[in-house]
Every structure is written in C-alpha cells, then in structure tokens.
Design brief:
alpha/beta, five-stranded parallel beta sheet, four-stranded parallel beta sheet, 14% strand, globular, binds phosphoric acid mono(formamide)ester
Length: 307
Amino acid sequence: MRHLLNPLDFTVEEIDELLALAGEIEKDPSRFAHVCDGKKLATCFYEPSTRTRLSFESAMLSLGGSVLGFASADSSSAAKGESIADTIRIISCYADICAVRHPKEGAALVASLHSGIPVINAGDGGHQHPTQTLTDLLTIHSLKGRLSDLTIGLCGDLKFGRTVHSLINALVRYPGVRFILISPPELKIPEYIRQDVLRAGHVEFKELGNLDEALPELDILYMTRVQRERFFNEEDYIRLKDCYILTPKKMKLAKEDMYILHPLPRVNEISVEVDKDPRAAYFRQAQYGVYIRMALIMKLLEVEKRC
Ligand code: CP
C-alpha cells in the first residue's frame, strides 16, 4: 500500500507517468468516468480548504467513485478529543482512500502509520502540500513544455508556505532549475531547505527582498499569500501582509512568456487587474488540480485505465 506524504515519495519517473496520465484525462475525461466505480474517498479536513478538498471530491466523482468526510475539526470527533490515529483506523473501515489536512506538521505521517488505506497528505501545517506540488508541476509542464532549465521565482511567505517547501523539494530533481527566493527577512526560506535541499543538491539560488529586481529573469513567478493563521502575533502579520503586490505595472518588467502561478487563495498579493493578463495562470492551475488528483487516486488505488 502506498501513501503520498511528501513529493519525494514518488520517483521522477512516477511523477512523469502521473503527469502523462493527467494529460490523457484532460484530453478525454469521459474515458475515465467509471474506473473507480464502487470506490470511496474520505476527505478528513481539520483545517479550512476550498480547492484541495473540493478538487479531491470532484476528482473522485469524475472517476465514478463516491465521497464522504468532514470539512472541519469541529464537525468531527476530534472536537471530543479523538486522536488522528484512532480516527484513521475508523475511516479505514468506511473508505478505500483518504485525504487528510491538518494544522500540525507530521499529522498525515501519523495517520499513515495507523491506516489500513492509502493516506494522502492534503497539507500538514507549514510542512508539505504534495498534491499542490503535483498540480504545480502539471501546470508548469503544460505551460512551458518542460520542468528542466527554468528560473523559478518564489515570492512572499517562504517561511511558513508549505506549497513552496514542497515545490522546491520536487523541482530540485530536474536539471537546470534555478530559484530566486523573494521574501522579507522575517519570512525567508527555512534553514533546512536552504542547507539540506538547495546547497546539498548544488542547486543555484539567490535570495532577494525586491520583486522588481527578480522579475526580468523569471520563467515562472510563484506568488504566495502571507498566511495570517501561521502568525503568533497579529502586529507582525499586519506589518508583513502587503509586502508584495503584483500589479500590471510590475508585470511590464516580466518576460512575455513568464507565467504567474499561485496556489490560492489570494488575498492582496496579486491585484485583480493582473487576472486579465494572459500570463496569469493561477485559475488554470486550479483546474489542473482536478486532473492530477484523478491520476493520483487511480495510482494509489491501482485501478486500471479503461480505453
Ligand atoms: N491551494 C490550496 O491548498 O487551497 P485551499 O486551502 O483552498 O485547499
């Protein structure tokens, strides 16, 4: 039985296969409409979500399966003190596969150790968000035709941003990828990513405070939200929340084929006027999230394609 807790749980070859399958699904979803007939997906979300939970549910329904679950800790027996280990033992009696989102780092790993069914990490605190990463890889591959030889700018909350941590982990395995890490000093990338992932892997990167300086070099700009829910201190959040705002004026500094990604939700960091720019790819990215989650469910449930 396989789980997905970290993007590195899959080899590059397995990720290539998933991206290819997602591409086939995008071309003709009707071919896959019954491959999960009779299967059930549980979504156990202890933290708010729109895209991840609903795209998982949409994915399973599009494969012919069914969905059950809870959308907040308050509406589950976690509110009565039940541990995630006990909850997943119970979910294993009710479903064939489970997606878990939890505010604590490592929660999905704990769930996987007590589970009788595949567990997918749908975000664990500030740690990892591997299915967002698969979505991002599919989006970049679809837009640029490759995952290698790209300059990727990651901008905003690089400290707590689990999507950023997962994406760096995944992209360092492709040759010729270099990173420009754009953040205020308080929200810089964690030291373990700088040392154990980037420096240890001899990956080219630089850290900047200024978005304008980075923009002309980038092939992809990955914007992120400053996350109120990860701050201990409201004053710090208010001071930092608008540190970067991407506007049409700033977009004039970018290449004609530089695409903007964002895991969403957006708050203020991309002005709505940028949405009209053909390089704004963040809503397409959310659509790709359904195709890649369909491919992932098929892989973890080991269901065959039907042509
Ligand atoms: N990108 C993402 O994880 O969005 P949600 O929090 O809405 O699931």
